[in-house]
Amino acid sequence: MVAGGLRLCGLIRLLCSLLIPALFLSGILCVCLVVLLWGIRLWIQQRKKQLTSAGKDGKRPLLVAFFHPYCNAGGGGERVLWCAIRTLQKKYRNVMCVVYAGDRDVTGEEIVEGAFRRFNIKLIHPVKFVFLEKRYLVEASLYPHFTLLGQSLGSVFLGWEALLKCVPDIYIDSMGYAFTLPLFKYLGGCRVGCYVHYPTISTDMLSVVRNQDTRFNNAAFITNNPLFSKFKLLYYYFFAFMYGLVGSCSDVIMVNSSWTLNHILSLWRAGACTSVVYPPCDVQTFLDIPLEEEKSTTEYSIVSVSQFRPEKDHPLQIRAFAKLLKEKRLGQQPSLKLILIGGCRNQQDEERVNNLKHLCEELGVSNNVTFRINIPFEELKRHLAEATIGLHTMWNEHFGIGVVECMAAGTVILAHNSGGPKLDIVVPYEGHITGFLAENEDNYAETMAYILSLSPEKRLEIRENARRSVHRFSDQHFEETFLLSVEPLFK
Q1: What is the pLDDT of residues 51-99, one digit of tens each?
Q2: Which of 42, 336, 385, 429 is deepest in the core (most CB within 10 A)?
């Protein structure tokens, strides 16, 4: 008994003798790390002075940099980018806007021209482009497993390249790379803000893995294996913790919808500096399209406007349309056509379009489905003006600019019963319906059939209600709320 007690005391003394040196060594390492990071920060600040030149008036302009590696894409996120830049150019004379771009196959002039062609946005002053060479580090295809973690760590290296090439005064992540925020804040010495279109991870994603549901981001081989599901859930919880940690570094947080707001507040816990800034939709341009009662009943067109990304769920649109077409062929009905309009960012998106075309062939609807990729703005307007139904199928769409555009253009919208469309857009206006919501293939086919069965007068009433409801998503409203949100960054 006594011998056992002596052994225990000896063990405790041994642990104490090891603990003190370990704590001392850890303290030294922490001090060294702090000194190293502080030295890097001073070096970057010195580099900033060397790289920045004075303006025509002899004063150094305030550099506001937007991190948007895919700035030449044609989606809603890019519309936010260019509207934000135009808004700052209108408000501040001493601001030079910088865009960190990864599109090395085009020039800055071509990118700006593309923004005007696609979004009808004309900038007031030139923009400085900083072209990055390592955009491949944030490509999902590079990380077949642990994609979220891989892309996030890749964004840190891409952000480091951006920081070395241009050190701004104000840094705004406009594309969802939250892991770059502490890099620019603590090493770059910048005031940092972000516009969150879609949380990298959400509580909905955690519930999908927890419930073992098969989705585009939760493969069947994982859902069918309880051990894999538990491991992925732990991975997601770890990533959610890290995501909240880096996101809370932001001085200003803007989110695009009520749905995104709820998730960001849950994960980042930074409510004091978080606000909803609805994305700018060019509603006035679409409102200029004359809204008249339909004259032709020989053909109806159903139009979808969204980038060709997996989460947009274009296969659901095609399958639901095929089911609708099959049912309509049973009787004498007007002909139907589905027009899929969207942008392709890279080879993966192009391959996705080819797969969608193969799906059309398998379902026997190729002659009734048309793909229009990276089309000019005027052609987009023409298709929407001629459409009867606007179609949207993304589960938990963060906002849905395409949904707003379809409503403003005068289509009867049919969107997914989740996310931004459910909470912010396709909601009753002054007690009247503005559109329809659906969740699965059968719902979509049935609702499309119902919309087409309505009288032209009833459809016109819904279209008019929808149009009146979209003014809160205008460019002007975005400019006002955006400037109010970023004001702390300029003080």
Answers
A1: 666 656 667 889 999 999 999 987 788 999 999 999 999 999 889 999 9
A2: 336
Mean pLDDT, range 386-410, rounded to an integer: 91
Residues contacting residue 41 through CB under 8 Å, at least 6 positions apart: 186, 187, 188, 189
Quote the tokens at residue 170: 């104000």
Rounded Cα gap, residues 170 and 191, in angstroms: 5
Other C-beta atoms lying within 10 Å of the C-beta of residue 449: 14
Is residue 330 predicted with pLDDT exceeding 50? no
Residue 269, amino acid: R
* In contact, 182 and 249? CB cutoff 8 Å: yes
Helix (H) or strand (E) holding 80: helix 76-91
228's enclosing H/E stretch is helix 226-247
Q: How many residues does the chain have?
A: 491
Do the bridges between strand 170-173 and strand 191-196 make them parallel or antiparallel, or are there none, so unpaired? parallel
3-state secondary structure 323-354: HHHHHHCCCCCCEEEEEEEECCCCHHHHHHHH
Q: Which two tokens stand for residue 300?
A: 């109806």
pTM beyond 0.90: the answer is no
Q: What is the mean pLDDT of residues 421-434?
A: 93
Q: How far apart are CA 123 and CA 438, in angstroms?
A: 38
Quickly list DSSP for 6-39: HHHHHHHHHHHHHHHHHHHHHHHHHHHHHHHHHH
Instruction: Specify whether the CB–CB gap between 106 and 142 falls below 8 A.
Output: no
Q: What is the pLDDT of residue 22?
A: 67
Return the structure tokens found at 54. Answer: 């004075």
Answer whether residue 476 shows pLDDT above 60.
yes
| CA angle (346, 351, 353) in 5-degree steps | 100
pLDDT, one tens digit per residue, over 163-204 is: 999 999 999 999 999 999 999 999 999 999 999 998 998 877
